[in-house]
Design goal:
21% strand; Alpha-D-Glucose-1,6-Bisphosphate, Chain A, domain 3; seven-stranded mixed beta sheet; 9 helices; single chain; 288 residues; 14 strands; globular; alpha/beta; 2 domains
Length: 288
């Protein structure tokens, strides 16, 4: 084992150094052992990857390893955002493995384990996975790998949640910053499918993220900020590398933090939707 340490979102390391074939195999088998011990070999495993360097290659390796352990694997047929894979885990009652390093520098890659409840893996889950790294075990069987489009059901789900007609009537020019990342083909597709006009920048995949950081903060959204400022009545949107973080630029070209956006949404749910809203503070984090 070489420098494998799990954080809150799994294991991350530099590609070609600690993130190599040997360690990917070790971590994949440790996850497979956790799934086998807690759910059995019948538990389906789904695998996705973002636009990072080697994410597709290492995710394929992981799929092969798990199939050789006897699992049935559904493997994404294209780059996928983490929220899409997480939703699919709950929908399909499957455990998920996402190859991403989120908003970290381009040289990093990671393995994020998503349990079947679609939320972050708890400490007791990751502790058990890490504990499996040092164990000797031999799981072998004839599993399967099937390429799968996880986007179709996710789009149907989003269509039920969002009133796109209201967005269509919005008197604003929408600008989408793809940031060369996983939200491309998802965020823009939802707008296109609902005939919502928008402009876009950096809307193609780049494993090096244009030489910048795939993090939707003002420092890395200068092109979007300038575009919003130069466009009448505009609003800008961006996501991070695997599209589980967001950045919003208002009509004045000002960055609106995620915490502010979430607060606005909570007010909307309480006052307009008349829903009961609770905030729970656990271990220093605010949960909604």
């Amino acid at each position: 084992m070489e420098n494998i340490k799990f954080g809150t979102d799994g294991w991350r390391a530099v590609v070609g150094k600690d993130f190599n074939e040997n360690n990917v195999e070790i971590v994949t088998k440790a996850i497979g052992k956790y799934i086998y011990d807690n759910f059995g070999i019948e538990k389906r495993i789904i695998i996705g990857y973002d636009s990072r360097n080697m994410a597709d290659e290492y995710s394929k390796l992981s799929a092969i390893i798990l199939a050789n352990m006897g699992f049935s694997v559904l493997y994404s047929n294209k780059i996928i955002p983490t929220p899409v894979l997480a939703y699919s885990a709950k929908l399909l009652n499957a455990c998920a493995i996402m190859f991403t390093a989120s908003h970290n520098p381009p040289e990093y890659l990671g393995i994020k384990f998503i349990p079947d409840y679609a939320g972050p893996a708890t400490d007791n889950i990751t502790d058990e996975i890490v504990g499996n790294i040092d164990k000797d075990f031999n799981l072998s069987g004839k599993g399967t790998i099937e390429k799968y489009d996880f986007g179709e059901e996710y789009f149907k789900h989003i269509e039920k949640l969002i009133n796109f007609n209201k967005i269509k009537r919005l008197n604003k020019n929408i600008i989408f910053d793809g940031m060369f990342a996983a939200s491309i083909g998802y965020f823009d597709k939802l707008l296109k499918d609902n005939d919502i006009k928008f402009e876009s920048i950096r809307i193609f995949y780049d494993k090096n993220f244009g030489g910048g950081m795939p993090e939707p903060k003002p420092k890395y959204l200068q092109e979007l900020i300038e575009k919003v400022k130069q466009t009448i009545d505009a609003v800008g949107f961006a996501n991070d590398g695997d599209a589980d973080r967001f950045g919003v630029i208002n009509e004045n070209g000002e960055y609106v933090s995620p915490n502010e956006i979430i607060a606005i949404l909570l007010i909307h749910l309480k006052k307009i939707k008349i829903l009961k809203v609770r905030l729970l503070k656990l271990s220093g984090q605010v949960c909604y």
